[in-house]
Amino acid sequence: MINKEGGIETMDLNKLKEIQAVVFDMDGLMFDSERYVQKSWDIAGERLGYGPLGHNIVNTLGTNLTNRKKYFLEHYGNDFPFDKFLDGYRDAYYELVEDGVPAKKGLHEILKVLREKGLKIGVATSSSEEHAVSNLKREGIFDYFDSVITGNMIEHGKPKPDIYIEACRQLKVDPSKAIALEDAINGIRSAHGAGMNPVMIPDIVQDTSKVDDILFGKCESLLEFAEILQGVTLDSIDEITEGDNICYL
Questions:
Q1: Which residues contact 232 (CB under 8 A, 6 or more apart)?
Q2: How far is CA 240 from CA 97, 171, 209, in A?
Q3: Measured between alpha carbons, how far apart are the two ends of the chain, in Å?
Q4: Would you place residue 6 in the very low, low, confident or very high pLDDT band (cuts 50, 70, 90)?
Q5: Arithmetic mean of pLDDT over the chain
Q6: Closest to 30 in 3D by CA, of 150, 135, 164, 131
Q7: Cα angle 24-124-154, degrees, rounded to a multiple of 5
């Protein structure tokens, strides 16, 4: 159970010293994109005659396209035109972010700290590969990452653990020695299920009570986590050979 104060008071610093890798979610964590998605759902919903649909985002944060479609069909009926909705909100989204999506506070700082400390860095996002790679390259941070796992690369999306298991496999790191940075409840559950140490950095959903008992920590921003990690002397990272202490799908 974490303390309500958040930040360094929530983390086991002895365990933090053993960390060998950090894996990032993307939307809502690295980029302030979820609010644009929410607005695009409102626009697409209104165009289809369903009214604003952006409020549904709190129930689908962190999930892949398959689970998102399942949610809408369950809540709006099997005749809900999800494919038209998908095309509509994607068009609206790209119109809204024509000038780019702002990076979240501390994104560049945390990446620099991780590189300085020699930690492996990965991405585990439910978004498509095209969307993820485009965002990372546009922000000029793609080369920081040793691995990028996207929603179309795995069978079962968040909250299932598959995407984080695959991220750790590709990074050749034991999940117990890796941190997952997440802004969504589904992502926290996914990382925990993979055996990782989940750190919550809330975005649209601020209430973390549903997952407080499985959090390794909670921070206000990526910048706060960067400052915490900067002040920690990590244990030396042993060479990890393929197949040693690695969780596989």
A1: 13, 16, 17
A2: 41, 10, 36
A3: 28
A4: low
A5: 90
A6: 135
A7: 170
Residue found under tokens 């590709």: 170
Residue 205 pLDDT: 87
CA atoms within 13 A on the CB side of 203: 29
Question: In this predicted model, what pLDDT tens digit does every residue of 137-186 receive, in sequence order?
Answer: 999 999 999 999 999 999 999 999 999 999 999 999 999 999 999 999 99
Q: According to the model, what pLDDT value does residue 9 have?
A: 55
Q: In terms of Cα–Cα distance, which of 151, 159, 213, 153 is closest to 182?
A: 159
Residue 179 contacts residue 22 (beta carbons within 8 Å): yes
Compute the chain's Rg from CA coordinates.
18
In this structure, the number of other CB atoms found within 10 A of the CB of residue 206 comes to 8
Report the alpha-carbon distance of residue 33 to residue 182 in Å, rounded.
14
With 0-12 / 13-18 / 19 or more C-beta atoms within 10 angstroms meaning exposed / middle / buried, residue 196 is: buried
Tokens of 176: 């117990």
CA 40, distance to chain mean position in Å, is: 20
Contact (Cβ atoms closer than 8 angstroms) between residue 159 and residue 238: no
Element spanning 21, H or E: strand 21-24
Take residue 94 and report the two structure tokens written for it: 């790209």
**Please, which residues have CB within 8 angstroms of residue 86's CB and are 6 or more apart in sequence?**
65, 69
What are the CA-CA distances from residue 45 to residues 33, 68, 178 (Å)?
18, 15, 39
